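Lecture notes, unit on protein representations.

Consider one protein chain, 80 amino acids long.
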Amino acid sequence: MVFQTRISQCLCLIAIGVMSLASTGCQTQMGGQTLPSAFYLRDDVQYFPHGPEELLPNQERALAEYRAEQEAGRQRVDNR
């Protein structure tokens, strides 16, 4: 009876240990650094293409259109 209790206690400890290892995640921290998992070389690579070089690419186009509209409006007023 004592032997069965001892075995069940050991199995419970092993199960708790396995569950705690499984729930810790992929990254580790050592010396304040977050390090990747041991399998980072086998992970799929996500590609994010470069965006436009200008911070606001539509702003220049919008300003050019606005200036063209303003110039066209001035020319209409001058032609009357």
